[in-house]
């Protein structure tokens, strides 16, 4: 029943899109009937023969940005969480920096790293770093100190306490932070490419939009959307497996 309701809603939205697209300026809006041929030409590498290279570049930038965000976020989060003095001093500052709209940092990153992939990786890293750090901090604070005391009373060492007591207790929050960080890293890289880049999916989108190739622009957005949804599906599967392991 749920699938039928979703399919019905999708068909209604598709019909509205078709009607509005046909009634609007073709330079500004296109109906799905015009997008499908553009999507076909795009996937057949007719309109943009370098599509695979740009997709691969964007995926590589996302992977590097996310890996750096996870490593740095875990290290920073555990350093702040296990040291109360440092945590109290720097924890609120991390939260305050996270509240600042991230796009204000991009001009400085572009000025420092240039228009190549480094600035996009840095922007994706910046967006993904804070959710991981704050998730680790919140997870450590959720650990019941009595469980740690009991484990130590039974002779458990620091590594055993961390692996058997702390990790299962904080895993739900941590996995949620890692999933959020992946989504933000994807957004950061693609937005960075749109704001200023010579290659990548964002650059192709910007190129099609600038030339008013609206059908190609929508087709490129759909391919990028598939990339984003695919990354979220992978993150969702990893989250389910991690939560099953903690039960």
Your description of this structure?
The protein is mostly helical. The protein has helices at residues 2-23, 32-43, 51-82, 84-99, 106-113, 117-142, 145-153, 158-195, 201-210, 214-246. It is built from ten helices and no strands. The mean pLDDT is 83. α8 (158-195) packs parallel to α9. It has a single domain, classed as MetI-like fold (Orthogonal Bundle), CATH 1.10.3720.
Q: Report the end-to-end length measured between terminal Cα atoms.
A: 31 Å
- Indicate the CATH class: Mainly Alpha
Uncertain segments are none
Q: Into which percentage range does the β-strand content fall?
A: under 5%
- Structural class assignment: mainly alpha
CATH-derived topology: MetI-like fold
Shape: elongated
Biggest sheet character: none
Q: What's the number of structural domains?
A: 1
- Number of DSSP strands? 0
Order of helices and strands: HHHHHHHHHH
Please tell me how large the radius of gyration is: 22 Å
Can you count the helices? 10
CATH architecture: Orthogonal Bundle
Mean pLDDT: 83
Relative helix content: over 70%
Name the CATH superfamily classification. MetI-like
């Amino acid at each position: 029943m749920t699938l039928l309701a979703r399919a019905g809603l999708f068909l209604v939205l598709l019909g509205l899109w078709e009607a509005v697209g046909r009634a609007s300026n073709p330079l500004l809006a296109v109906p799905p009937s015009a997008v499908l041929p553009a999507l076909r030409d795009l996937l057949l590498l007719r309109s943009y023969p370098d599509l695979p290279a740009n997709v691969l570049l964007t995926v590589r930038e996302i992977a590097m940005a996310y890996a750096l965000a996870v490593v740095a976020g875990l290290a920073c989060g555990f350093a702040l969480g296990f040291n109360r003095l440092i945590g109290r001093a720097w924890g609120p500052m991390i939260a305050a920096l996270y509240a600042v709209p991230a796009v204000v940092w991009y001009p400085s990153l572009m000025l420092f790293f240039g228009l190549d992939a480094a600035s996009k990786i840095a922007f994706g890293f910046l967006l993904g770093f804070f959710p991981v750090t704050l998730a680790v901090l919140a997870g450590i604070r959720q650990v019941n100190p009595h469980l740690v005391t009991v484990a130590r009373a039974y002779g458990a060492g620091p590594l055993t306490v961390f692996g058997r007591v702390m990790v299962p207790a904080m895993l739900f929050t941590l996995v949620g932070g890692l999933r959020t960080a992946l989504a933000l890293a994807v957004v950061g890289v693609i937005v960075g490419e749109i704001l200023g880049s010579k290659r990548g999916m964002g650059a192709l989108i910007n190129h099609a939009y600038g030339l008013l190739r609206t059908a190609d622009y929508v087709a490129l957005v759909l391919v990028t959307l598939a990339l984003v949804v695919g990354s979220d599906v992978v993150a969702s599967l990893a989250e389910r497996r991690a939560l099953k392991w903690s039960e």
